[in-house]
Specification:
The structure holds two protein chains of two kinds.
Chain A lengths: L2 H20 L4 E17 L2 E19 L2 E7 L4 H17 L24 H4 L3 H17 L3 E17 L4 E16 L6 E8 L7 H14 L3 E2 L4 E7 L1 H12 L4 H5 L25 E3 L21 E5 L2 E2 L6 H6 L11 E3 L6 H6 L3 E5 L2 E8 L4 E6 L3 E5 L2 E6 L1 E7 H6 L1 E4 L11 E2 L3 E12 L3
Parallel strand pairs in A: 7-17, 8-13, 12-20
Antiparallel strand pairs in A: 1-2, 1-4, 2-3, 4-5, 5-6, 8-21, 9-10, 9-12, 10-11, 13-16, 14-15, 15-18, 16-17, 18-21, 19-21
Chain B lengths: L4 H11 L11 H16 L4 E17 L2 E19 L2 E7 L4 H17 L17 E5 L11 H16 L6 E17 L4 E19 L4 E6 L5 E2 L2 H6 L8 H11 L6 E7 L1 H13 L4 H4 L29 E4 L20 E6 L2 E2 L6 H4 L11 E2 L8 E2 L4 E3 L8 H6 L3 E6 L4 E3 L5 E4 L3 E6 L2 E6 L2 E6 H6 L1 E4 L6 E10 L4 E9 L2 E10 L7
Parallel strand pairs in B: 4-6, 9-16
Antiparallel strand pairs in B: 1-2, 1-5, 2-3, 5-6, 6-7, 6-8, 9-25, 10-11, 10-15, 11-12, 13-14, 16-19, 17-18, 18-21, 19-20, 21-25, 22-25, 23-24
Helix pairs in contact in B: 2-3
Classes of the chains: A alpha+beta, B alpha+beta.
Chain lengths: 445, 514
């Protein structure tokens, strides 16, 4: 165990013990972490800023009867911890009762997910980060393009504990690299990004090269009118859009009648076939694509959950309160998701389009209507027209207004991969869908 | 540098805030600052600054009939920024001892040196005289001293009022109180202490029709502000009644809008966010020059357009101001230690100004920074962030009621809804909270399913009437994101209501093509 982990554990134990003494009869929950993050930021082929940052957080929740209070501090020293306990102890005594408060968890069993920590990432030096940054920039610089990018590495230890015996946590690493290459005249742009837990997954030079290729390929654009098109959404675009679907899966909202998944009179769409048989959406901490900590923010064990299987909505996400109220099992708060891979390559998806649009990436997506899962956003960093099954050239960017449920309903093919993108906790390969509503032209490049 | 009580009191006397007792006089902090600046100097830094930065955020939230959350989050630490051979390095720690400060400074120096090879041009800072001062938000009631139980009871009462309306089973309300305290010291001799308090109340009512499975939410249109609790008491929040919930029911039952090109009258609670996205962000100089290309994007307002581009109709003057009382981005000094001020970005329709920091001023030939540097917390490096950006009222312009009265056929949009804009700030789409048809100078009933879509330049050039000072209002957002790692910046926008012609109004439920 590292010295940092020992220091963290000592702090957590101190907070639990002192809290029990400070407020007799209170249940105690502590979530704490220590981490170091390093980053290098790039623009115009050069470094702009960099950082080497230590963070410490300890969050204490006390539950006294139905009264709950939480406070968080960045002070892990003894005096800071004691002050935190005093603060929450004072708060919980005056906090109004919360009838939905749930008891703190006792000891839990968790999956073993070794993929959340990579010592090679934890050991990255400032010089190695600079080397990654150089690799991102070099393909652009050598071709007279302008690259902007970002390298970010995080390494730390987290711990969850409760007065009922919960003791979870461990070391975690993360690494993300991204690069945007733009032509010097500002007419072409390409971006590549990868979030990962392990250093071996990151090939910065390849990402830099791919971004530069897209920038060059997108520099000469033709005008394409707005309309409903067959589209192939590459993995980053799929990921940003499906996030709205996954974020709307709350069972309580659905049963209260305020969700896309609601039916009249408190019923929901669970059990209904919403999409084609090839559409599956799941969460899985042990997936090799999306390893994440096997505990959620309350310490509940994460496990594989299939929300959509064979196109059927099989279940919704259930909080501990809603589960207890209805005597059902809760689902842990999930981190990321997986769109089940299909067959073939992105090129094969494109080959099935007579006339349509290839969208590399989405930008500034936002809900317009949660009832229909209507989302707006824009295409960015490469929008191409497809003719007779081939990419025929770059076109202008678009604003779209499209229901995420609708695009999945009309999805007729999903690629086998790749499905990685900015977020290491999401895996979603490219997909093809029909009648995608490209509502207006954007002049942005 | 010696951080003496005399220095503190001198600052106090200048600022006139007798209550601004900070932590400058604590010997441990003096040691931490001096240790960092000494280590930077010995390590070869041509410039260094140290920021001791505390943030506290207290949130009380209620849902329907019970308290959902009482939380109190605090962070505190030291961030050191060094410039070595024209290259920045930054490091930070939550430990603020002298030894930790020295270690942080050593790591910042190492980063700057490691990245030397990636630096093509040295950073050059525009001049800014050294200053010693203390500044704080003017307030009479510190929101952190208002008992949590009083806040919770207020919010529960508001939810009771909202849920008393038939057809509105759900309501929530919250109040967030935020404190930012920072001590800035630079190798050039500046020593600045600032304490900023911000408040953010909010409430929603949700109407549901169980028979159809339809629902509609309506948010209170009050705005966050730099202020004490006394502002909240006077803001109308505490007096919130069932009308908000009645709006939700009316909105649920309202006819769907007929899409098409329309004249729109935008209330300040809607227009402020359009200003934020279509004027605030495009006039950030770092964005215009490509520094945000990998994340937030670039801008159509590039320096070759400065002084030439017809950004808006001649009725429009948009200005930046970090001094306006109550503004979320208002303060006396930015995080470069530069005094804040007010200047025009768009003057009588012409694009005339940028937001800059000390590093950026020279990029466009200006001699001094506009004071737009900001870091969200101790662990974040300071960079260019948006000041309060506002639309100047027409001193002889109409009130909102008059603006409606002089509109023959249009749509009044109020409050914030969905928002989105492209990465060069051309194509935007916004929604709102309420939408009322205007017919022959009168409000002619609520409609629903509205969004408006335009191009920033077309939109502002189509501004045919700017309201007067009668309904000039300060609105804002608590958390504007930019940068990598992303940082959050609180920022306000003041504006009167205004009228825009030929705006593309969409029906978001599919009537026409949304």
């Amino acid at each position: 165990m590292s010295a940092e982990a020992k220091r963290l554990d000592a702090a957590v134990q101190r907070v639990v013990e002192r809290s029990k003494r400070a407020v007799k009869g209170a249940q105690v929950f502590v979530r704490a972490g220590v981490s170091n993050e390093k980053n290098v930021r790039l623009a115009l082929n050069r470094v702009t800023t960099s950082g080497d940052v230590d963070r410490e957080t300890v969050s204490l929740t006390l539950l006294l009867g139905a009264r709950v209070a939480t406070a968080t501090s960045s002070a892990l020293d003894g005096a800071g911890l004691d002050e935190l306990v005093e603060r929450v102890a004072a708060l919980v005594k005056v906090a109004p009762e919360d009838p939905e408060a749930q008891p703190v968890l006792a000891s839990q069993r968790y999956l073993n997910v070794p993929g959340v920590f990579d010592p090679a990432v934890a050991g990255l030096s400032a010089g190695q980060l600079a080397a990654l940054a150089r690799a991102l920039v070099e393909p652009s610089r050598s071709q007279g393009l302008l690259a902007a990018g970002f390298v970010h590495v995080g390494s730390g230890v987290e711990r969850l504990a409760s007065s009922a015996g919960l003791w979870a946590g461990g070391p975690v690493t993360s690494l993300s690299v991204s690069v945007t290459a733009r032509t010097a005249d500002g007419q072409g742009s390409g971006r590549e990004a990868l979030g990962a837990r392990a250093l071996a997954k990151v090939d910065a030079a390849r990402l830099g090269k791919l971004a530069a290729q897209t920038a060059v390929a997108s520099a000469k654009r033709s005008a394409l009118a707005p309309g409903r098109y067959s589209v192939v959404l590459e993995a980053p675009a799929v990921q940003s859009l499906l996030g709205f679907f996954m974020g709307s899966l709350d069972e309580r909202e659905a049963e209260e009648g305020r969700s896309f998944f609601s039916l009249p009179n408190g019923q929901t769409k669970v059990g209904q076939r919403l999409f084609g048989e090839h559409v599956g959406l799941s969460v899985d901490p042990a997936s090799p694509w999306t390893p994440c900590t096997p505990w959620d923010l309350e310490g509940l064990p994460r496990a594989r959950v299939d929300f959509v299987k064979g196109g059927v909505l099989t279940q919704l996400a259930r909080s501990r309160f809603w589960a207890a109220k209805h005597r059902r099992a809760p689902t842990a708060q999930f981190d990321g998701f997986v769109l089940s891979p299909g067959r073939g390559t992105v090129e094969e998806l494109i080959a099935g389009v007579k006339r349509g649009v290839l969208i590399k990436r989405c930008w500034y997506t936002n809900f317009v209507d949660p009832k229909t899962l209507l989302v707006t956003g824009l295409t960015r960093d490469g929008t191409f027209v497809i003719e007779d099954g081939k990419v025929a050239g770059a076109v202008n960017a678009f604003r779209f207004n499209e229901s995420v449920a609708g695009l999945l309903e009309r999805c007729d093919a999903i690629a086998a991969g790749p499905g990685e993108g900015d977020d290491a906790s999401v895996y979603a390969p490219a997909l093809r869908t029909q009648e995608f509503n490209l509502a207006s032209v954007s002049d942005a490049v | 540098m010696k951080l003496s009580r005399r220095a503190l009191l001198g600052g106090l006397a200048t600022a006139g805030f007798a209550d601004a007792k900070g932590l400058l006089v604590e010997a441990a902090l003096s040691d931490a600052v001096n240790a960092a600046l000494d280590a930077a100097k010995r390590g070869g830094a041509q410039y260094a600054d140290v920021r001791l930065h505390r943030r506290r955020s207290q949130d009380v939230a209620v849902r329907d009939d019970h308290v959902e959350r009482v939380s109190d989050v605090e962070s505190y630490g030291v961030g050191v920024r060094v410039l070595v051979d024209g290259v920045w390095g930054f490091a930070a720690s939550p430990i603020t001892t002298a030894a930790a400060s020295r270690d942080v400074t050593r790591r910042a120096l190492a980063l700057a040196r490691a990245n030397k090879e990636l630096s093509l041009e040295p950073v050059v800072l525009s001049p800014s005289p050294a200053r010693t001062d203390v500044w704080q938000t003017a307030l009479t009631k510190d929101p952190f001293r208002i008992p949590v139980e009083d806040k919770a009871e207020l919010l529960l009462e508001l939810c009771r009022r909202l849920r008393a309306v038939k057809g509105v089973p759900f309501a929530n309300a919250h109040v967030s109180s935020r404190l930012e305290w920072k001590l800035f010291a630079s190798s050039e001799g500046s020593l600045l202490e600032q304490r900023i308090v911000r408040m953010g109340p909010g409430a929603h009512a949700t109407a549901v029709d169980p028979a159809t499975g339809e629902f509609m939410s309506r948010a209170w249109e009050g705005q966050p502000r730099q202020a004490g609790w006394e502002w909240l008491e006077a803001s109308g929040f505490t007096a919130l009644d069932g009308r908000l919930a009645e709006d939700a029911v009316e909105k649920l039952r309202a006819p769907s809008v007929e899409p098409g090109r329309k004249t729109v009258v935008l209330a300040p609670t809607n227009l402020f966010l359009t200003i934020h996205e279509s004027v605030g962000h495009p006039t950030e100089l770092d964005r215009a020059l490509g520094h945000e290309a990998n994340f937030a994007g670039t801008s159509f307002a590039t320096p070759n357009h400065l002084g030439k581009l017809d950004y808006a109709s001649p009725a429009v003057t948009l200005f930046a101001d970090r001094t306006v009382p109550g503004g979320l981005a208002s303060c006396a000094y930015d995080d470069d230690g530069v005094p804040t001020g007010r200047w025009n970005l768009v003057e009588k329709g012409k694009f005339v100004g940028y937001q800059t920091t000390r590093e950026q001023a020279g990029w466009i030939g200006e001699g001094a920074s506009r004071g737009c540097s900001y870091a969200q917390d101790y662990a974040s490096v300071a960079f260019q962030r948006m000041p309060n950006v506002s639309l100047a009222p027409d001193e002889k312009g109409p009130s909102l009621a008059q603006l409606i009265a002089e509109t023959d056929d249009g749509l009044l949009i109020s409050g914030s809804g969905s928002w989105s804009i492209d990465h060069q700030r051309y194509n935007f789409q916004f929604s709102g909270q309420t939408f009322h048809a205007i017919k022959r100078g009168k409000l002619a009933g609520m409609v629903r399913d509205v969004a408006y879509q335009s191009n920033s330049l077309d939109f502002w050039r189509g501004c045919e009437r700017v309201g007067g000072p009668q309904d000039f209002a300060l609105c804002g957002v608590f958390d504007d994101g930019k940068g990598e790692p992303m940082q959050s910046n609180p920022v306000s926008h003041a504006c009167p209501p205004a009228r825009f012609k030929g705006v593309n109004v969409l029906n978001t439920r599919g009537k026409g093509r949304p």
